[in-house]
Specification:
Subcellular location: Cell outer membrane
Organism: Flavivirga spongiicola
Distance between the termini: 55 Å
Protein name: RagB/SusD family nutrient uptake outer membrane protein
Keywords: Cell outer membrane, Membrane, Signal
Number of helices: 18
Largest sheet: 2 strands, antiparallel
Main location: membrane
CATH architecture: Alpha Horseshoe
Shape: globular
Number of domains: 1
């Protein structure tokens, strides 16, 4: 009984340390954390400690104030997805009544001033996930361990994959471009790491690739209990994104994505499904997402609260997030995806995703407590990445085939793709990526991968018609002020 009490107390305290919204691990002293030895000892006595830690990480992805603010834009991964969609210009803040996102994000004030809270919000969220993953990895024996049990392998694979996921987004949001020699971020791969200097991009990519290759092996044969867990196809998709952002491993990106397409068991969403609300994690084409229930307790402060006019939300009350007018104009009239942004019953809400993201009740402002689900990855991304990688690797036939498989479910005739080659084919794949994945947090990644120049359409509130290169300082966050103040090894902004 005494041992059980000690272990339970350690678990409770450990959870508070990892997931408290009030404290930032990068602002603490080492004595306030459990060591690898302490965590490993607890896990040895109660293996549920590790599973609980992984569950805590997945919960962290949807938890409000994970970035250390009380802002209504601070709600985990999907909050950062909105940042990216707005920075790249594909999502327009077309009406701003309450001011969320306007100055800091759409006017680029936050990305040019390290004192703005959005910089800390993004930084803190991902490093909290990193530290939590490090705790799980430590409890399973460390970075080089190979657990004997299948359950241990599957837990370790998930922990490594989610750590790589966080570092990937950090490299995208805090570096202007991929430069292997540029020092951009601290690297923490052990629970005892608390503060450290910025290291070269190549070091961070090496860790991400190592983590994901290991995860793919460890997760082989893993039958997850829910889609919020990372399985092998998701880990393959994450590795494809990492390698694609490096722009020098297109053959492997093509191989990874083809394996997910052929063997993952995820069909493309149909023309009916893509106007069905994007509200159900059970949708067969969703590879990774989370089933949100009333018990989770999300309401206005959530992705749905910022995006969905049919929820009690800012999108209902006067902060409209619309598709960029210029992007919308490039969608053919006979494309099923055009209907995602057209709703004759609500003419005062032009170009909002009223038929893409919505609560099924379809009552303006109706859903008060969030039950509609979050999406993180779907198989359409793999088709588009496969097409992009194949085109860049010279396998244009494979690229056209993958692209047409998607387009055949969106438009009556995709034969025009057969006449595309070279840069024209790559440009078409990029355009279709922006259209297909609008509002899902992937347009920013595609902009960086394609080294695109963005030009905002007429329905933005600022910088309309101004060309902005993908590596412009305004499109990436600054290392936050509090990190510089509290980390003695960092004394300057992004280089």
């Amino acid at each position: 009984m005494k041992n059980k009490f000690i272990i339970s107390t350690l678990i409770a305290a450990f959870t508070v340390v990892l997931f408290s919204c009030e404290d930032d691990f990068l602002e603490k002293t080492p004595s306030e954390f459990f060591t690898q030895a302490q965590i490993s000892e607890a896990a040895e006595s109660d293996p549920g400690v590790i599973a609980s830690t992984l569950s805590g990480i997945y919960s962290l992805m949807v938890q409000i104030e994970t970035g250390g603010t009380t802002g209504d834009d601070d709600f985990g991964q999907k909050g950062n997805d909105i940042f990216g969609d707005m920075l790249c210009g594909d999502m327009a803040l077309s009406v701003s009544t309450f001011g969320w996102y306007r100055a800091s994000i759409t006017e680029f004030q936050g990305t040019q001033d390290f004192t703005f809270g959005d910089n800390r919000q993004v930084w803190r969220y991902y490093y909290r996930v990193v530290r939590s993953a490090n705790a799980a990895i430590a409890a399973l024996g460390g970075n080089d361990a190979v657990p004997e049990s299948d359950s241990g392998k599957h837990l370790l694979g998930q922990a490594k994959a989610i750590r790589a996921h966080s570092y990937f987004y950090l490299t995208q949001y805090f570096a202007n471009n991929y430069n292997p020699s540029a020092e951009i971020l601290p690297l923490y791969d052990d629970i005892d790491d608390l503060n450290g200097p910025k290291v070269a991009t190549s070091e961070i990519y090496a860790l991400m690739e190592s983590d994901l290759r290991s995860a793919i092996t460890l997760l082989d044969g893993f039958n997850r209990s829910a889609k919020n867990e990372i399985n092998k196809p998701v880990a393959q998709g994450l590795l494809a994104y990492v390698l694609g952002s490096r722009r020098d491993s297109w053959a492997e990106v093509a191989t990874l994505t083809k394996d997910v397409i052929d063997n993952g068991g995820f069909p493309l969403m149909t023309a009916t499904e893509i106007v069905g609300g994007f509200d159900d994690v059970a949708t067969p084409g969703w590879m990774w997402g989370i089933d949100l229930t009333l018990e989770i307790g999300l309401d206005l402060v959530s992705w749905w609260g910022q995006m969905d006019s049919f929820s009690f939300s800012y999108a209902w009350a006067g902060d409209f997030k619309a598709i960029d007018q210029a992007l919308y104009d490039q969608i053919p009239e006979n494309d099923a995806r055009k209907e995602q942004f057209r709703d004759a019953a609500h003419p005062g809400r032009p170009l909002l995703p009223l038929n893409k993201f919505y609560h099924e009740g379809r009552v303006i402002g109706g859903q008060r407590n969030i039950e509609t689900d979050y999406i993180y990855m779907r198989v359409a991304e793999m088709y588009l990445l496969h097409a992009e990688a194949s085109a860049r690797n010279g396998a244009e036939g494979d690229a056209r085939t993958a692209l047409k498989q998607l387009l055949d479910l969106r438009i009556p005739d995709s034969s025009y793709v057969d006449g595309l080659s070279g840069q024209a084919l790559i440009d078409e794949i990029y355009l279709q990526t922006r259209i297909e994945l609008w509002g899902e947090g992937k347009s920013y990644l595609a902009m960086k991968r394609n080294e695109a120049t963005i030009t905002r359409g007429s329905n933005h509130l600022s910088n309309v018609g101004v060309p902005i290169d993908h590596d412009d300082e305004r499109l990436t966050f600054e290392i936050p002020e509090l990190e510089i103040q509290n980390n003695p090894f960092i004394d300057s902004q992004n280089e």
